[in-house]
Design goal:
alpha/beta
Amino acid sequence: MAGSIRILSTKSLTTPQKERLLNAGFALVEIPFVKTETVPFSHPHKIDRAIITSQNAVKAIRGADLRIGQCFCVGEKTAAALTEAGYPPVLCESSGEQLAYALADRYKGKDFHYLGTRNRRDELPRILKEHNTPLTEIEVYRTLTNVIEAPGRFDAILFFSPSAVNAFRQKNETGNAVCFCIGPTTAKAFEGFENKVAIAAKPTAEHLILEVVKYFNPKRQHSVEQ
């Protein structure tokens, strides 16, 4: 029965997201293993091409006197947040790796600015460098890990970033839990470990939750999709 299935979310969910899991009969525990804070940053008067890979970066640049010619981003939620902030993206991909290859193919040799955190994966800057596409990084927010011990064992663990995977592993074992990852970049943090990993069809919390329901209780899938 789904009611006996314990789920750990490594970030705080919104009320509608929590209700989807609880209404499907799961027991839910939320522990934020990663926190972020904006930091003061300096930038050129105008950035011709900006790369933004998270909603945290969008929050950090809101209100800044920042002119951006073209935005390129990762994830539908980031794209929506950018559009709302007045920076509608020209191109949106589902992972930093996919975005890097797309940019290297279409804009090889052009200058880009990455607005994000220093605690990021290496694929995007590495791929751009390999394709002779200059990248300037500007730290607009800081990622802070919250290393704590989770209570008990879980049947499923929801991960929303590689940082959360690393923070969780410092004091916890995944055991036999299925590790549900919001995207392929997060799933890569499990390379070399013997874990059962499932990846959301799209990199959103809603699709990640749907993946959980499909896995454990497919009869409730339709109600969760509503």
